[in-house]
């Protein structure tokens, strides 16, 4: 049974980018291998859990040696789609849309922003970090002419579901949603709802606990 046939738990999926990030840092430092015990200290999970995580994908380690960092990074790149590369568009060219377009980490992870859209006439035609902002009325024709995989949403919450439904109808495969509203799951598209304030409140919770 290959990894596509196995049901991979959501918690394992959430750890994969962290594995990638830590291993990428080690590779940049010139490290060539790491044990599951050493990796567990960086990840904050047990070595046994790490081995279980990787076993969902066939296992990548060698007993007595650990993990070859470069080989493991290559495997994670395939799993995470970094080697495939995805074209994305920004929908909502405000401050958050600007920040996301300017974020170098998106490009390093294999994503390319090829378009930006807004309905504000003051923004249309302007440059957004090297990407021209177009009228949202033209988004369907743009998607038809270009190989767009992902729409990054940074919209007012009252418009998000309507715009998302239209994008799904246009054939978008993934929605990365920063619009402060939980989009309903859809069998036709992969949806990732991002709530930045959740992380901030988690920080606040931990600080409150430390002060008690």
Short structural summary:
The chain has 212 residues and is an alpha/beta fold. The protein is built from 9 helices and 9 strands.
Topology:
Layout: H1 10-28, E1 33-34, H2 36-43, H3 47-55, E2 67-68, H4 69-80, E3 86-91, H5 95-102, H6 104-108, E4 111-118, E5 127-128, E6 131-135, H7 139-145, E7 150-153, H8 157-169, E8 174-177, E9 190-193, H9 196-211
Parallel strand pairs: 3-4, 3-7, 4-6, 7-8, 8-9
Antiparallel strand pairs: 1-2, 5-6
Helix pairs in contact: 1-4, 2-3
- Main pleated-sheet profile: 7 strands, mixed
- Roughly what percent helix? 40-55%
Overall 3D geometry?
Answer: globular
| Proportion of residues in β-strands | 15-25%
The total domain count is 2
CATH architecture of the largest domain: 3-Layer(aba) Sandwich
Q: Quickly count the helices.
A: 9
CATH topology of the largest domain, by name, is Rossmann fold
Task: Give the CATH H-level superfamily of the largest domain.
Answer: NAD(P)-binding Rossmann-like Domain
Would you count the extended β strands for me? 9
Mean pLDDT: 89
| Largest sheet strand order | 5-6-4-3-7-8-9
Estimated structural class: alpha/beta
The first-to-last residue Cα distance is 49 Å
The ordered H/E elements are HEHHEHEHHEEEHEHEEH
Return Rg in Å.
Answer: 20 Å
Tell me the name of the CATH class of the largest domain.
Alpha Beta
The poorly predicted ranges are: none
